[in-house]
Queue: 2 jobs
Job 1
Amino acid sequence: MSFENLNLHPLILKAIVDSGYTEPTPIQEQAIPELLAGHDIMASAQTGTGKTAAFMLPALHRLATPSKVHSRGPRVLVLTPTRELALQVSEAAAKYGKHLPRVKVVSILGGMPYPLQNKLLSQPVDILVATPGRLIDHIQRGRIDFSRLEMMVLDEADRMLDMGFIDDVERIASATPATRQTLLFSATLDSAIDKVAARLLKTPKRIQIAAQQARLDNIEQRLHYVDDLSHKNRLLDHLLRDMALKQAIVFTATKRDADTLADNLSAQGHEAAALHGDMSQRDRTRTLTKLRHGGLRVLVATDVAARGIDVAGITHVINFDLPKFAEDYVHRIGRTGRAGAAGIAVSFASGKDGVNLKKIERFTGQQIASHVVPGLEPRFKPRPGAGGASRGTPNVAHKRSRTWSNDTSGRNANSANGNRDNSRGRSFDSDNRGNSFRGSSNPSPYARTK
Ligand code: ADP
Ligand code: MG
């Protein structure tokens, strides 16, 4: 299947070629024809599989034909749970729409000044990307004219549900024309999502890209047992000194821990910064831009702030603290291994984390192999059956000297772990981690999954 078969507007195809995409991902292949035919859809696919283009390309396709309604209001509305995700969606709209004449994209996000937003909203808008809370404010003040709205997209609907935004989402939906096309994207389609869909979508097509066994295949998961905070800090310092680590996101349990850890790492000479929900929007945007441009090697983040971040250079995700919910584990480690590149996800687990670890392994259906860094072995011995203990002797990760070798894949360093490596390496045998597929001459990884 190629993009040409999808009947998208030629100027959109041109932008796709510019992006370096050679063929649609499975979710794009299935969703785009349904959307062009005018159907509502509810869709799930693992993170990093190109859901943004799956809705943005058909949205732009609509915009290529002028609206019949005379209005300056948005024709496409995208709701996202976080500001970061909204900005990413706006960037994608600009990227895929760059050859179309006059596609005006406006982002309306919490934490940004109202006067500027009022000004943006008083001008003609084609695509409005918003977080629900702030949009409600503007709707209540009568600043948004939805009379020509044709399409509403709920991106990461499960997350919006978890974050308590669903009432806002429903109120927003009720302010839009009933004739709209509605799209719902979610990591999973469960009964809670079904209820939302039943209220907001019209006989939706259900698209589920089964990825249970394929998902995370390109991400190597490692576990390190830890004794205490100081042990965690020493291990982290060791991991960050690995030359194969291009960029990393380190997850902490709390905003305060994220700040403290980022400060400590900076003091140790690492290019590190924190990202969490208590920071001003300016600071968050500045930090993310820096990360994207490679000016930052280590981002220390909380779950919510890191949601949906898509930065191609992220080779490692480190769970300094394990997430509370197994589902968050998948979201976290999905920040690496973007678009089929290889990635490494390291989790620290202490004696108290046994139950949590089990939940995570049950959720992913994969056991996380435990590793030991020589010289930084844990005193703590996991209980039998907890986490990696059942697999006997832990794998010895690699000698410290290995970290200064030229092996930028970081994968060979783990040869003690033969089977896992082979199965992983085969699915996405890409050593050019750090490059996205955009503009690269390498074939798309999606080509090989067929
Ligand atoms: P998701 O929303 O499913 O988590 P994204 O939409 O953020 O995933 O896309 C992940 C990455 O894949 C982005 O960097 C994007 O540019 C890239 N991508 C999207 N579609 C394709 C494609 N058809 N071929 C190659 N890369 C793609
Ligand atoms: Mg997404």
Job 2
Amino acid sequence: MDGAARGLIDAFQERFPDSACAGVWRAPGRVNLIGEHTDYNLGFVLPVALDMACYVARGPAAGGRLNVHSRNMNDARSWPVSALPTLQPSKDWSDYVAGVAVQLVKAGYPVEPSNLFIHSAVPFGGGLSSSASLEVSVALALLGDRVMDRVELAKLARRAENEFAGMPCGIMDQYISVFGQEDSALKIDCRSLEFEVVRLPAGIEIVAVNTMVKHELGGTAYRERVAECAAAAEAIRRRHPEVASLRDANLDQLELIDGVPRQRARHIITENRRVEDFVAASARGDLAAMGALFVASHRSLQHDYEVSCEELDFLVETATAIPGVYGSRMTGGGFGGCTVNLLEPGTSARFQEAMAKAYRDRFAIEPRFYPCKPSHGARRIA
Ligand code: ADP
Ligand code: MG
């Protein structure tokens, strides 16, 4: 048993002294290397599961209730399990947990009266997907010894976020949290829900840099982008009925779309292409090409998709001027959160020092750095 599991069990027993801990489950956060906002357009993404994860300890509860304590939030919730089928969202962190419980019941997996103790090492709202790691770890903890198909598990966690937390996200975050592999990225086809293991070249380090800001706009803009992409696909479909989503569209068809949705579609079409090109560049060990694709992806997100912000743009500008940096781009939904950077090994300390100084001078904020070690997907750890 690892140290994290031991710590969780102790914390669980302290919080729920009358309940015997039945197990600890872990689900990782992720950093997406390339393929941003393509998942809900049924395209390609290339994420890596992180060694930062959400941990959930579970034990049986008395009184027919589901009791939940989040150490990060220092807050607790409790629902009668009999009320789960008709539960309504409460517009706070507990929706991610309740949403999973509700979806399990709907899928025919009754939720046993339980105590859950939650602790996460994934930063919140940083674009590293603390939400999906919470959903997946809670789903596994509530399933216990019952097995569920792993793709169904990812889909269920996504439905919790879509239907209960109210975010129309794609499948990427939950899928990589379930399926992540050590030392590898996964190229996920968000339509077929199949993946290809992508081994990254030896000569790179991945470092995420947190702007430490999350602009309010984020949630609203995300919903807007989902709607704009649907409108763009609809406009193409009038002429080309085979275009079920922007995944199927090509650049020649852009002229069929008017206004802003045309710009959004251009990002999606070129970004799907960049995922393919990045995988090819990685296979031939072409670090310069990989870096250039990172920057091209950022420009497209900045100008066509318009989901970047001043802080993210500044971090990308600063990073790309530092020797030993192959490329830099925003990662995750945008409007704050993290950039992901490809570095020459051995340059990380110098990179962090230069980035922190520049960011501090410009915004008076201390950025955070996360070296990203590709790690395994969700599982029981105790
Ligand atoms: P991201 O997934 O990029 O971190 P989101 O806005 O999608 O950002 O999800 C962050 C939210 O998920 C938090 O604000 C909180 O409501 C919830 N959350 C994540 N981890 C935990 C946790 N360990 N305990 C309670 N809530 C959590
Ligand atoms: Mg999230």
